[in-house]
Amino acid sequence: MKFEKHVFICTNQRPEGGKKSCGEVCGMELVRAFKKELNDRGLKNKIRAQRAGCLDACDYGPSIVVYPEGIYYGGVKLQDVREIVEEHLIGNRPVQRLITDFTLESSGKNE
Predict the structure, then answer these.
(1) Structural domain includes residue 50
(2) Is 94 helix (H, G, I), strand (E, B) or coil?
């Protein structure tokens, strides 16, 4: 099955005291929320949401990335899920306040 959009939600958990991570608990809450929202709107066969390992955007977590656009969102909270689904996944209007361009800001930082 080919999906129109694919949402990857970071669930990576790093050891305590190490580098910041999105965390499995928070990440799985977001996975469940995205899946529920998509299912409730009858979109589960058009848009896929799933857990992912590290997205290399740890400092901006909880992080998600939406493909095919390749747009990264940072600091995503449960209350943001409906807006992301409505605006970006359905309306094709990325949620500007959550977009992060960590690649420019963190070059050389993730070593």
Answers:
(1) yes
(2) coil
* Interatomic CA distance for residues 49 and 33, integer angstroms: 9
Query: pLDDT by residue (tens digit) across 72-103?
Result: 999 999 999 999 999 999 999 999 999 987 64
| Cα→Cα distances 21→48, 81, 111, Å | 23, 19, 15
**pLDDT tens-digit readout, 10-20:** 887 766 665 56
- CATH number of domain containing 20: 3.40.30.10
Rounded distance between C-alpha atoms, residue 65 and residue 76, angstroms: 11
- Domain assignment present for residue 32? The answer is yes
Amino acid at the residue 64: I
Residue 110 lies in a domain: no
DSSP 56-93: S-GGG-S-EEEETTTEEE-S--GGGHHHIIIIIIIT--
How many domains would you assign to the chain? 1
47-52: strand order across its sheet:
47-52, 5-10, 64-67, 71-73
